[in-house]
Amino acid sequence: MNNITKHPLQALGYHFIDPKYLPEGVDEYYIRNQQNPRRNYRQLTAYEIETLVRNNNTSDNWNHILVDDAFDPGLVKNCHFYGLVRIGKLEPYYLEFHNLRLAVGLYNSTICSSDIGDNVVINQVNYLSHYIIGNEVILTNVDEMATTDYARFGNGILKQGEPESHRIWLEICNENGGRRVLPFEGMLPGDAYLWSRFRDDEVLMQKFIEFTSRAFDHRRGYYGEVGDRTVIKSCKIIKDTKIGSDAYIKGANKIKNITINSSADAPSQIGEGCELVNGIIGYGCRVFYGVKAVRFVMASHSSLKYGARLINSYLGNNATVSCCEVLNSLIFPAHEQHHNNSFLCAALVMGQSNMAAGATIGSNHNSRGADGEIIAGRGFWPGLCVSLKHNSRFATFTLIAKGNYPAEIDLRVPFSLLVHEESENRLKVMPGYWFRYNMYALARNAWKYQDRDQRTEKIQHLEYDFLAPDSVNEMLDALQLMAYATGKAYYNHMHTHVSDLQKEDYQKTGESLLKEKHPVLQQIEVLYEGLENSSRRNIFIKIAEGYQVFGEMIHYYGIKNLLPVIQRLAEEEDFSSIQQIFREARLEKWENVGGQLVPLRYREQLVQDIHSGKMNSWQALHQRYQEWGKQYEQEKQHHAAAALLALHACTAEDLHPDLLIQWLKKFVHIQQWIDEQIYLSRKKDYENPFRKMVYDHEKQMEKVLGRLEDNPFIIWSRQVSQAYQQQAAQILKKWETTSFHKS
What we know:
Layout: H1 30-35, E1 42-43, H2 46-54, E2 58-59, E3 65-67, E4 76-77, E5 80-82, E6 85-87, E7 94-97, E8 100-103, E9 105-107, E10 110-112, E11 115-116, E12 121-125, E13 128-129, E14 131-133, E15 138-146, H3 189-197, H4 202-214, E16 224-226, E17 231-243, E18 248-250, E19 254-260, E20 269-270, E21 275-281, E22 286-287, E23 292-298, E24 303-305, E25 309-315, E26 320-322, E27 325-327, E28 330-331, E29 335-337, E30 343-345, E31 347-349, E32 353-355, E33 360-361, E34 374-376, E35 381-382, E36 386-388, E37 392-394, E38 399-400, E39 403-404, E40 410-411, E41 417-421, E42 426-430, H5 433-437, H6 439-451, H7 469-493, H8 503-516, E43 539-540, H9 543-571, H10 575-584, E44 590-593, E45 596-599, H11 600-612, H12 618-647, H13 657-687, H14 689-692, H15 698-705, H16 712-737, H17 739-742
Parallel strand pairs: 2-5, 3-6, 4-9, 5-10, 6-11, 9-12, 10-13, 11-14, 12-15, 13-15, 14-16, 15-17, 16-17, 17-18, 17-19, 18-20, 19-21, 20-22, 21-23, 22-24, 23-25, 24-26, 25-27, 25-28, 26-29, 27-30, 28-31, 29-32, 30-33, 31-34, 33-36, 34-37, 35-38, 36-39, 37-40, 38-41, 42-43
Antiparallel strand pairs: 1-3, 7-8, 41-42, 44-45
């Protein structure tokens, strides 16, 4: 039975806060007055009351209607007021927004205990209760817009007297709730990552709860807010919602317990048919056309469109999710998922990712419980109709070909193409696929993500380059893995007695064969052991080519990031300082913390500082992110030097000018090869007869696709490449005549 209670009519609009939660000596408006400190209100004159009554307005007490000196009572018609209502300027203007033109004033509305700013339009709002409305706001054709005294505006906190069961959690990364986090306004991808990953650290988990609790006021009595110049039209229910300035909300079905961050520089928009409950929406977000989102956080400048469902998930900055369903996932920045039949569940996706149509990423239907997970490194691209099973893990920049992958996968080789060859009942891994066959897409995506990073406040430094400490470390590890697998395959092929051989022996033999591109590699099958939770014989393909391109790209990464410092020190003829950079370099683990790459020791120090109380708030944690960002380039340079030494199996003491000159010349050669690969991989689209057949002639194709020579990304990449080559040439020219080279 519905519990409908009756109260005296004269109480409507009053007693917002239960007396037991009111501090001594204050009234129910004390928090409202803090939210809206404006005090230049006066009481109505007898003439104004007469005009209001003549215009069919009512109030339970006209003395509780306070107004600005520039209040025009003729602009208030057919309204019913209850409780304390304070109204700013109402002047004879009309407001126009997107061809919507409405006269300033209050019309045909019921308004309970609210503050209304200057020159506002409130028209056909059936019920407006306990809101603070900014200046030049338009509210029209809204069914219900109300705030309760316990409104939390999407934050995972409790108000006075609330039981723990009322707290909102986000059950990200795992459907069983074992990685759940509390949402809060301003939550960054790194926050969600740290909170969800290290569940065994009970002190850290408790500290994060305390951070969140201290960041917000637990008193009852906060009013909902609508910022200046916000437009809300044709909506049904807006409840317990805080809305920033310059937002545009039209046709929403339901918005409940939500914070919508918005500003003049980064306005947010909510469109038709959306239903949003228990969430945080960042600055500059777009939510359109039938979206359903429940228990969620959208970081700034992300988009939900076309019926997408986002539940128990965190969506990172500059990401777009359309049409599809995303459940229990933590998604880092620059994610794309556009197709109605794609599905992402219980996953940690580390950014720069793209889900194709028909992709089912994570299935618990073939396991004993809904507690599986998928971890995917940066650049995760599952192709058409890919089906993956929990638990699985993928290295950075993995491309997965169409297919049903029936067992758990642990792919540790980056930049790979993974293929399920059903006819032979095995998986195939082609290492370095992206470099050799689609360099254009790889390089263009890095450029695109950087170009589309619209964040107005870049607290976390996001890495978009495909060659970065995380991917380079994976390539270095992959070189060892491939050498070991090749050596083992070789000895098995030769039927050599291998009982006395160690792992290092396999690696040494495999390394020699791969570097030589030995003809025997054409005759042996190199197994990828541990790739899949099955007894199938999964294999590497084109392993020698992949091994070679990994080495070249690691070398390229190392020199590219050291070029500025090498050039400066070369001008000073200071080779000893160059050597010192390599002496200080250390190859260490790095971690992707919400799209921000940091040495593992940074994160470990962060945890220690939280444990000790040195860091005691989200604000302090976010300041640490910014400090990390300032140190990133220097740390990456040290990592680049360490990667070069590891790749070439040498030490800083082995370094001499002639060797560095060789390295620079090799860098120039690789840069030229990258330019060629970018051009050729795009050129294939212009030469493919099956792509050309839909055009009557080449001129028509150019009109549709544009001329290859005019491709803006190719032009830009060539300019960048030429700058690198000129920089290297200047260093080489200097060194060929410098005194330390002659010595």
